[in-house]
Specification:
Layout lengths: L2 H22 L9 E7 L14 H17 L17 E7 L4 E8 L6 E3 L37 E2 L5 H5 L3 E5 L2 E7 L5 E15 L5 E17 L6 E4 L7 H8 L5 E5 L9 E5 L11 E4 L10 E9 L2 E4 L5 E5 L6 E3 L1 H14 L4 E2 L10 E3 L5 H6 L4 E5 L4 E4 L1 H4 E5 L2 E4 L1 E3 L7 E3 L7 E6 L4 E6 L34
Parallel strand pairs: 3-10, 4-9, 16-25, 17-24
Antiparallel strand pairs: 1-2, 1-12, 2-3, 2-8, 4-10, 5-8, 6-7, 7-8, 8-9, 11-12, 11-26, 13-27, 14-15, 14-16, 14-20, 18-19, 19-23, 20-21, 22-23, 26-27
Protein name: Peptidase A1 domain-containing protein
GO molecular function: aspartic-type endopeptidase activity
GO cellular component, one term: extracellular region
C-alpha cells in the first residue's frame, strides 16, 4: 500500500476513534469499567472526621445514625421509612465543563442525584416549600456548583421522561421542571431538574477519566434540614439513580460494587462500576432481587440464619431484607433475632456484660484485656440463608462491635415493627465485595480483603476535601463468600 494511502487510513481510523468516544460520551477504557474512592464519613480521609472523638465515640454515633435512618417516619407519602439523611459514605464527582469537583453522599438507599447549586447560576431564585415552618439554615455547603460557568449545563423540561419519574415535581417556573425531594427525617431539598456532564477520575490506570454526558440531576437551591456534603448521589434501584443512568450513557451496564474496609482500618474503600463490579472469586454467593414496597431499595429474601448446626427459618418461608450501605447496624425480624441471640449466648464463652438497651443491642460481653484475635476465636460464624439457595457467612467482625472500652456487643438489633423488613447494614458487609446487577436483578456477596482492593491506601495521604485531588483508586478484587 502506498505511504500516502497508509497515512490517510491511519488518520481516518483516529478520527473514527475520536468520534466514537464523543458519541458514547466517555473516555475509552477497554470495557473494564472504572473505580472511585468510597470514603467513610468518620475516617481521617473524610472532611467530616472529628479528631476529638475516640474510636468508640465514632462507633456510638454511627449506631445512633442507624436508628435515625431505620426509624424515620415517611414524609409526604413519597419517600419510605428507610430513606433519611443520616449517611455513612461519600464519593467524589466532577460536574460540568470545565468540571467542578464535589464530594457527595453516596447512598444505596436513595435514587435522585442532586448537588448544591448557586441560585443565580441555576437560572432563577430557588423554589420554596409551601407550608413549611421556618427552619434554621444548615451550615453553608463546602462546594457549590455554578451552572452559569459550565458549557454543558441544560435544564430539563416538564414533558421529559425524567421529570415524570420524580415523586414530586411542578412546572411553576414555566416549562422548567422543579423537583421537591423529601427524606424520612423531615429534611428536604428542591431545585431545578437539569442535565450535566459528569466526569469520574480513575487514577488506577494512569490519570484516566470516564466522562458521561447528559446525566439527570437536581440542581438544588433550597434546603430544609441539616444536609452536609456537596450533594447526594443516589445509587438505588430506580431510573433516576446514577447506576441506571451510567448504564444508559456509558457502556458499563447497570452494575456496581463496593468493598467496605472494616471500621478498625484507617483506609478508603472502593466503589466500582462496569466490568470491575463483577464479583467472581470462588464461592461467591448470588441471590435474586425481589419486588419491594419501595423500588429504590435492593431487597432480597432472607430465608434463614444458621449457627453451627442450628438453623432458624424466617417466618412465612422468607423475610424481605434490604441490603443498605448507609445503615450501620443489621436489623432482623424478631422471629429470627430472638433464637439467634439465644443460640449465640449459649455458645460464646465470654463474661457477660449488661445489654445496651439504649442502643437496642441485646447481647454484650466484657472483653477487657483480650486481643482482637482472641475475641474472634470465641465467636461462631453466622450464616445467612438467602433466596435462590445462596448462603453468606458473617464472621465476628460482621456480627459484633466494640461499643466502649472493654465492651463487645452484637451489632444486630430488632427491626422496627412498622418497617416490616430486615436491613443488612454495613458492619455485616465489612470485608465483603458486594456487587449489584440491575440487568440480571441480582446481588452477589464475596469475602475479600477490602483494604487491598484500594492499593492507594498503602501510601496515599489523608483525603482532602473536594478542592484537592483524590488518591488513586483501583479495581476491587473479584468477590467471594
Amino acid at each position: 500500500m502506498p505511504a500516502t494511502t497508509t497515512a490517510i487510513s491511519r488518520v481516518l481510523l483516529l478520527v473514527g476513534v475520536v468520534l466514537t468516544a464523543q458519541l458514547c460520551g466517555c473516555t475509552a477504557y477497554g470495557g473494564d469499567g472504572f473505580s472511585v474512592e468510597f470514603i467513610h464519613r468518620d475516617s481521617v480521609g473524610s472532611p467530616f472526621h472529628d479528631p476529638s472523638l475516640t474510636a468508640h465515640d465514632r462507633v456510638l454515633k454511627a449506631l445512633g445514625r442507624s436508628y435515625a435512618r431505620a426509624d424515620a417516619p415517611s414524609a409526604h407519602g413519597v419517600v419510605s421509612e428507610l430513606t433519611s439523611t443520616p449517611f455513612e459514605y461519600l464519593m467524589a464527582v466532577n460536574v460540568g465543563t470545565p468540571p467542578t469537583r464535589l464530594l457527595a453522599i453516596a447512598d444505596t438507599g436513595s435514587d435522585l442525584v442532586w448537588l448544591n447549586c448557586s441560585k443565580k447560576g441555576a437560572h432563577g431564585p430557588g423554589p420554596v416549600f409551601a407550608g413549611d415552618t421556618p427552619t434554621p439554615p444548615p451550615p453553608p455547603p463546602r462546594v457549590v456548583f455554578d451552572p452559569s460557568k459550565s458549557k454543558t449545563y441544560r435544564l430539563v423540561g416538564c414533558d421529559s421522561v425524567a421529570c415524570r419519574e420524580l415523586p414530586d415535581s411542578s412546572c411553576a417556573a414555566g416549562d422548567k421542571c422543579t423537583y421537591y425531594y423529601y427524606y424520612g427525617d423531615g429534611s428536604a431539598t428542591s431545585g431545578l431538574l437539569s442535565t450535566e456532564t459528569f466526569t469520574f477520575a480513575d487514577n488506577a490506570r494512569g490519570k484516566r477519566t470516564t466522562r458521561v454526558p447528559n446525566v439527570n440531576f437536581g440542581c438544588g437551591t433550597t434546603f430544609v434540614g441539616s444536609f452536609i456534603g456537596d450533594g447526594l448521589v443516589g445509587l438505588g434501584n430506580s431510573n433516576l439513580s446514577l447506576v441506571t443512568q451510567l448504564g444508559a450513557h456509558a457502556s458499563v451496564g447497570r452494575r456496581f460494587s463496593y468493598c467496605l474496609v472494616p471500621y478498625s482500618i484507617n483506609a478508603s474503600s472502593a466503589l466500582n462500576f462496569g466490568a470491575r463490579a463483577a464479583v467472581t472469586e470462588p464461592g461467591a454467593a448470588t441471590t435474586p432481587l425481589v419486588p419491594s414496597r419501595v423500588k429504590t431499595y435492593y431487597t432480597i429474601d432472607l430465608v434463614s440464619v444458621k449457627v453451627g448446626h442450628a438453623t432458624y427459618k424466617a417466618p412465612h418461608r422468607s423475610s424481605p431484607a434490604i441490603v443498605d450501605s448507609g445503615t450501620t447496624l443489621t436489623f432482623l425480624d424478631k422471629a429470627l433475632l430472638d433464637p439467634l441471640v439465644k443460640e449465640l449466648a449459649g455458645r460464646i464463652k465470654l463474661p457477660k456484660a449488661a445489654p445496651r438497651a439504649d442502643l437496642g443491642l441485646p447481647l454484650c460481653y466484657n472483653v477487657s484485656g483480650l486481643r482482637e484475635g482472641q475475641i474472634a476465636a470465641k465467636i461462631p460464624d453466622v450464616k445467612l440463608g438467602l433466596g435462590g439457595g445462596a448462603a453468606v457467612t458473617l464472621k465476628a467482625l460482621n456480627t459484633f462491635v466494640v461499643v466502649q472500652e472493654g465492651t463487645l456487643c452484637l451489632a444486630i438489633a430488632p427491626a422496627p415493627e412498622r418497617l416490616r423488613t430486615s436491613i443488612i447494614g454495613n458492619i455485616a458487609q465489612q470485608n465483603m465485595h458486594v456487587g449489584y446487577d440491575l440487568d440480571k436483578r441480582t446481588v452477589t456477596f464475596a469475602a475479600a480483603d477490602c483494604a487491598r482492593s484500594y492499593p492507594a491506601n498503602a501510601h496515599a495521604p489523608a483525603h482532602a476535601h473536594a478542592h484537592a485531588p483524590a488518591p488513586a483508586p483501583a479495581p476491587a478484587p473479584s468477590g467471594s463468600v
